[in-house]
Amino acid sequence: MGRRAVAATLVSFLVFTSLLLANSALYSAENSSLGAAVLSATQVREHEYGQILVGLSEYGSLAKVQDYLQSNTLDCTSPQTYLDSLAGSEHGAGMVEGIGYAADASWSYDAAAAGSGAVTPFLSQFGGYVFGEINVFVITSIEENFEGALPSYSIQDVETLHLPVPLASTISLCLTILSDLRGALSSLPHCNSSEVDAAISVARSSYSVLDTFTVSASASPVASGCEVEYWVTTTLRGLEGVSGTFQWTVSGAGSFET
Fold first, then answer.
1. Which residues pair with 95 in a beta bridge?
2. Which residues on neighbouring strands pair with residue 251, listed in sequence order?
3. Euclidean distance between CA atoms 109 and 83, whole angstroms
4. Fewer CB within 10 Å of terminal CB in the chain, N or C?
């Protein structure tokens, strides 16, 4: 083979190799762009689903608090134990359309507006701290990944929500009624049920606020004199909650000897 033929063959090889490299680079660039687009779209999906999970966490937290309120009576003479019992936590995990997730939620009574931020739109009426009502501090942590790998997404959301329950005013009213009732029963002329009924009747005519509660009392002779016990209770119905209307009961009691 002559020198010209060898040179021509070498040039052809170099041109062919250059074309292969150029096409490979172009394919790689297009593939990277496609991969970046898929990655970006997946991240958007993870973000959007993360917001849904936060909303479900907020809803579930308020629903649990609502269930507790409806199922348990608050003692107005020692409300803190009851309010502490509103706390709870929940863990959930699963896979939705290739997005794996783990969600952890915790909630507790919020006495000082500890949370802030944007509440899920469908819970907007329960968003924020409202003085004197049942305020709930909710922490939600979300971890997501796509098909067990990348991309991953995480968020921690901290909110204060509320249920429109007149906590402060109902406790104050309950304590006032207990005080009025004790005053009415403190000077029974005789230690028997007839005198107790008469004292309650007088108290109702003197303190109209007693009509908002059911009141009762008893008197029993003891060695030192007369032991008097008294109780008050009220049930608020038709309260608005995240899972429908509900009722809430508040009671109080006291005793003394004369």
1. 100
2. 75, 233
3. 6
4. N
Question: Residues 155-187: pLDDT tens digits?
Answer: 888 999 999 999 999 999 999 999 999 999 998
CA distance 98 to 51: 17
pTM: predicted TM-score of the whole model, two decimal places: 0.79
Q: Pick from 127, 106, 116, 103: which is nearest to 49 by CA?
A: 103
DSSP letters spanning the chain? --HHHHHHHHHHHHHHHHHHHHHHHHHHHHHHHHHHHHHHHHHHHHHHHHHHHHHHHHHHHHHHHHHHHHHS-EETTSHHHHHHTT-EEEEEEEEETTEEEEEEEEEEE-SS----SPPPGGGGGGBS--TTSEEEEEEEEEEEEETTEEEEEEEEEEEEEEE---HHHHHHHHHHHHHHHHHHHTT-SSSSHHHHHHHHHHHHHH-GGGGGSEEEEEEEEETTEEEEEEEEEEEEEEE--TTS-EEEEEEEEEEEE-
